């Protein structure tokens, strides 16, 4: 007989091989070579974790006990993949755009990031999956037991239990190593996926090998096998239609709702195009898996001694025929089925537990706003590792408590019906915008309660969890609450009864409560994005590069802030990170700044809702944000439509808009002016303050002391002049200037100006023609002199010639007196000529001359008040200004 | 000490004041008063600290700051921005662009000294 040690050796070698496969895949993906890891073949094979040990061992047992009914378990997923592939595609698209990490995340996210719903679904999933994990441990242990018995070694139940425990520990290690190795924001695990793909091949190969051996090696070919089947009771076509429909429905629903299926179907999917292949390839896989179930069952019943467990025919048949190699292969197939299911289910559940229970509690326990991303990562990883251990421990404990006696298929069906309670909230969530969290919560609680009462608790048998009295008379004697005859309706198959009432009440509660209550705004937005996911996202895109994230943040910011502002913001951020271009790293700091920027445009609440998704413990989903931005735009469009209904409103709106624009323009001007004044006042104050600090705080040599005091004096004068100018300009601009009209000679005014400007003692030589200046003017002579002083001082300050000259020419043109001031400097560049009369328009390179840039503005105001003008004369060689006096004020001197 | 400070500022009196107090404190002060050529000046010898005025002739201090932060050689040099437009948004702008310190004119000499010591001493 086969050596038991050989079996253990082969198993360990197989496990080591799986470790190698997973490790190699992780390495390839770390190097960015994910091409074939994301292929449709790998994806299809990974879906085969639907076929667990239940399918591998249990289907034969099911067929042996209940005939063709086992086919329903394959028909459900087949119908989903072939007929409902569009639903799967929608789920995959939503999963990617929303960065969903689990089925609990889907429900929570769809219903406005509801924490309560996330916890609820997580708990349901754990309750539903724990028996299932126990089932896998049980099947592995039973098959080991078969080999132990056949090798004649003495095995105590204790040894079987410890075998189960070691299997559980091994699986925990594998899942921790490859499931929490690196925290990928997408929750994709190439190592695990490739390992389960390999296991999918092994289990299919093993089952088919056993099948081929049974058909051709034992029964003697296809013909005799078919005869055998025809003669057996199992092949009788007597479907109980209610049961068949119910079973197909449950397996189809479970295919979508099982946490492990959601993990491989949606979360691990990185390219929705592979769905096309999977939609026919996976049903083909199921077909091959189911092909030999009936022959094995019938031949097994025929050959094996009375009372042998049909769940184990796949192993015991080859063993009884002395085919030890085939038996070991078959064992490895079953082992693969069990381990792949446990690994993915544990991983999916651990993700749910950490994301929906542990991390939110941890975040709540901390002071708000103090979230450090590094901390979160550590908490997530640790909580996930602990969760994996705890979930497997649950499975092991359930296995010990249940005693491993129940038929595999029964445990499987109970589990299926439990997780299918999520289906109404899921389907409603992706197709019905009116669905809301209250409805989803009500449906889940009602459905789960009814399932527990009518299916889960009764599965422990009469007097197991529910006493016989309650079965017969209902709790507290309330007859219509009997677990297998709710509302007094008797005579239904218990499975159909439980399924009908749980789904009916679940769906009813979900819809009625959804209709009666109102969703919150975030829920509304999420609802729109789930239901209309194909409008919000286009094409197949991957989010693996951080550059792509920054780019899409930029796209979103441009929609809200406008192109130039958004680009400037991103560019500044990129530069501050030391990167060229427009795409900075997406750091928490940057996200925070971006939120503030956005809140200026869309309001703090919306911006927070958009950015606030960050705090959910996963990375920000950029497409979320874009979708919210689109939604905002739609809401604005909608309000525009309403506005258009009333012409009056529209007119008012336009008037308001114009007024607002004017105010904004004025306020911008005012801001610029104040900022400029601030600068002009603070500059001399800086020197004064600094030098007075020096004089006060330290010993300074006499010479320096004098110099510093001189600077303080000079800067104080500058300040005073500036204030005078400002006040002057203020008065002039307000139009309330008092003119002191008088009569005088233009020559006298010019004389005064030359002296007052100090130009007569400086380097600048002034050329005048006294004859032409003998003109009598009627005006405010002081103000006119002020204009002249300004122009002469400017020439003195800015004329950059070696031998600076200023030519003052007085002329009469068309009866107007004009006074031209032309120097021999570089002149004023053409592009600046139009600006020099504006306030603070000091030319850049003239800064050292110390003016505040108010002089020419004052001149223009004064000449305006006097009824004349001052302009810049281009093309005169140097800088040239022309002052024009109005006719009435110029009188020829006698 | 003896570390090098580059002061980029266009007001002669302010240049004199800052140079005086820093030199007295043991720093080697280089000055430059034009925005346009400021980057060339920095590249001639990367200083241990840059004091940078915002409103410079030729080129704004913010533009110079962006250039400083974008180049490997100067990205790590602490920059103390000086501005006479003491509005909050100027401070945000400066810090957002990567300035290490931001000072509004007029400043107290003690503050300048304290900041310079804090920024440039290892």
TrEMBL record, chain A:
Which residues are in coiled coils? 628-659
User: In its UniProt entry, what is this protein called?
Assistant: histidine kinase
Recorded catalytic activity of this chain's protein? ATP + protein L-histidine = ADP + protein N-phospho-L-histidine
Domain named Histidine kinase: which ranges?
676-889
Give one Pfam hit by family name: HisKA
As for membrane topology, the entry says: Multi-pass membrane protein
Q: Which gene encodes it?
A: phoR_2
- Name the Gene Ontology molecular function terms of this record: phosphorelay sensor kinase activity; transmembrane transporter activity
Q: Member of which family?
A: Belongs to the sodium:solute symporter (SSF) (TC 2.A.21) family.
Q: What is the lineage of its organism?
A: Bacteria, Pseudomonadati, Pseudomonadota, Alphaproteobacteria, Rhodobacterales
TrEMBL record, chain B:
- What are the BP-aspect GO terms? phosphorelay signal transduction system
| Single Gene Ontology MF annotation | DNA binding
- In the record, 4-aspartylphosphate modifications are located at 53
Sections of the chain in a coiled coil = none
Domain (Response regulatory) spans 4-120
PROSITE patterns tied to this protein: RESPONSE_REGULATORY
Give TM regions. Answer: none
Which keywords, in A-to-Z order, does the entry hold? DNA-binding, Phosphoprotein, Transcription, Transcription regulation, Two-component regulatory system
Q: Does the keyword Cell cycle apply?
A: no
Q: Which Pfam families match?
A: Response_reg
Question: Where does the signal sequence lie?
Answer: none
PANTHER family in the record: PROTEIN PILG, STRESS RESPONSE REGULATOR PROTEIN 1
Protein name as annotated: Phosphate regulon transcriptional regulatory protein PhoB
């Amino acid at each position: 007989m086969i050596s038991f040690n050989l079996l253990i050796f082969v198993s360990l070698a197989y496990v080591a091989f799986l470790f190698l496969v997973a490790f190699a895949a992780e390495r390839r993906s770390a190097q960015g070579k994910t091409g074939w890891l994301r292929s449709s073949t790998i994806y299809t094979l990974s879906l085969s974790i639907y076929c667990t040990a239940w399918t591998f061992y249990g289907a034969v047992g099911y067929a042996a006990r209940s005939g063709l009914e086992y086919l329903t378990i394959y028909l459900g997923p087949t119908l989903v993949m072939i007929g409902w592939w569009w639903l799967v595609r929608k789920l995959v698209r939503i999963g990617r755009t929303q960065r969903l990490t689990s089925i609990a995340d889907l429900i929570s996210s769809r219903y406005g990031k509801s924490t309560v719903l996330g916890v609820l679904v997580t708990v349901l999933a754990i309750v539903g999956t724990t028996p299932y994990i126990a089932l896998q441990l049980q099947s592995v242990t039973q098959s080991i037991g078969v080999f132990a018995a056949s090798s004649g070694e003495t095995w105590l139940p204790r040894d079987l239990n410890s075998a189960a425990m070691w299997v559980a520990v091994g699986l925990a290690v594998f899942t921790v190593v490859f499931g929490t190795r690196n925290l990928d924001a997408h929750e994709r695990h190439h190592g695990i996926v490739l390992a389960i793909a390999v296991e999918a091949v092994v289990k299919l190969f093993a089952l088919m090998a056993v099948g081929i051996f049974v058909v051709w090696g034992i029964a003697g070919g296809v013909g005799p096998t078919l005869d055998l089947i025809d003669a057996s009771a199992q092949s009788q076509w007597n479907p109980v239609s209610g049961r068949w429909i119910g079973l197909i429905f449950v397996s189809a629903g479970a295919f979508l709702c099982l946490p492990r299926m959601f993990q491989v179907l949606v979360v691990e999917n990185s390219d929705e195009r592979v769905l096309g292949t999977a939609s026919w390839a996976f049903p083909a896989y199921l077909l091959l898996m189911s092909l030999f179930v009936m022959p094995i069952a019938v031949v097994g019943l025929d050959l094996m001694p009375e009372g042998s467990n049909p769940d184990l025919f796949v192993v015991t048949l080859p063993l009884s025929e002395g085919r030890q190699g085939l038996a070991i292969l078959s064992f490895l197939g079953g082992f693969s089925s069990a381990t792949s299911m446990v690994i993915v289910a544990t991983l999916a559940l651990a993700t749910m537990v950490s994301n929906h229970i542990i991390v939110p509690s941890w975040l709540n326990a901390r002071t708000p706003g103090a979230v450090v991303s590094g901390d979160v990562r550590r908490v997530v990883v640790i909580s996930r590792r602990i969760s994996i251990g705890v979930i497997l421990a649950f499975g092991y404990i359930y296995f010990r408590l249940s005693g491993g006696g129940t038929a595999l298929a029964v445990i499987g069906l109970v589990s299926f019906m439990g997780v299918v309670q999520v289906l109404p909230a899921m389907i409603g969530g992706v197709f019905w915008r009116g669905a809301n969290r209250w409805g989803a919560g009500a449906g889940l609680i009602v459905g789960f309660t009814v399932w527990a009462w009518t299916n889960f608790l009764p599965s422990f048998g009469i007097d197991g969890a529910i006493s016989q009295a309650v079965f017969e008379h209902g709790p507290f004697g309330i007859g219509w609450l009997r677990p297998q005859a709710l509302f007094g309706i008797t005579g239904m198959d218990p499975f159909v009864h439980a399924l009908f009432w749980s789904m009916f009440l679940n769906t009813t509660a979900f819809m009625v409560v959804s209709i009666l209550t109102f969703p919150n705004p975030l829920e509304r937005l999420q609802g729109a994005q789930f239901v209309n996911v194909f409008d919000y996202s286009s094409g197949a895109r991957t989010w693996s590069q951080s550059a792509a994230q920054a780019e899409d943040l930029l796209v979103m910011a441009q929609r809200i802030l406008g192109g130039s502002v958004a680009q400037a913001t991103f560019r500044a951020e990129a530069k501050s990170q030391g990167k060229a271009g427009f795409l900075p790293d997406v750091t928490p700091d940057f996200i925070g700044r971006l939120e503030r920027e956005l809140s200026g445009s869309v309001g703090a609440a919306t911006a927070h809702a958009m950015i606030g998704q960050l705090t959910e413990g996963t990375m920000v989903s950029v497409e979320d944000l874009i979708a919210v931005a689109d939604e905002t735009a739609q809401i604005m469009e909608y309000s525009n439509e309403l506005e258009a209904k009333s012409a009056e409103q529209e007119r008012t709106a336009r008037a308001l808009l114009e007024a607002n624009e004017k105010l904004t323009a004025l306020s911008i001007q005012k801001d610029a002016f104040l900022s400029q004044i601030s600068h002009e006042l603070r500059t001399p104050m800086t020197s004064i303050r600094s030098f007075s600090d020096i004089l006060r705080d330290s010993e300074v040599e006499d010479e320096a002391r004098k110099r510093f005091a001189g600077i303080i004096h000079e800067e104080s004068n500058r300040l005073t002049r500036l204030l005078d100018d400002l006040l002057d300009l203020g008065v002039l601009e307000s139009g309330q200037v008092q003119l002191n009209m008088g009569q005088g000679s233009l020559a006298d005014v010019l004389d005064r100006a030359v002296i007052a400007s100090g130009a007569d003692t400086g380097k600048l030589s002034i050329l005048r023609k006294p004859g032409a200046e003998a003109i009598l003017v009627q005006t405010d002579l002081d103000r006119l002199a002020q204009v002249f002083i300004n122009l002469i001082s400017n020439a003195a300050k800015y004329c950059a010639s070696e031998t600076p000259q200023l030519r003052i020419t007085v002329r009469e043109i068309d009866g107007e007196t004009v006074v031209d001031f032309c120097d021999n400097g570089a002149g004023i560049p053409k592009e600046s000529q139009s600006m020099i009369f504006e306030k603070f328009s000091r030319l850049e390179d003239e800064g050292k001359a110390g003016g505040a840039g108010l002089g020419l503005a004052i001149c223009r105001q004064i000449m305006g008040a006097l009824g004349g003008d001052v302009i810049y004369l281009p093309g005169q060689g140097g800088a040239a200004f022309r002052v024009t006096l109005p006719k009435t004020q110029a009188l020829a001197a006698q | 000490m003896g570390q090098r400070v580059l002061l980029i500022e266009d007001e002669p009196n302010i240049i004199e004041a800052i140079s005086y107090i820093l030199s007295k404190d043991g720093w080697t002060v280089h000055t430059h008063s034009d925005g346009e050529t400021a980057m060339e000046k920095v590249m001639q010898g990367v200083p241990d600290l840059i004091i940078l005025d915002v409103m410079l002739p030729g080129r704004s201090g913010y533009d110079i700051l962006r250039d400083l932060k974008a180049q490997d050689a100067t990205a790590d040099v602490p920059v103390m921005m000086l501005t006479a437009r003491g509005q909050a948004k100027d401070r945000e702008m400066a810090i957002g662009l990567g300035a290490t310190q931001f000072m509004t004119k007029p400043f107290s000499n003690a503050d300048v000294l304290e900041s310079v010591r804090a920024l440039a001493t290892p």
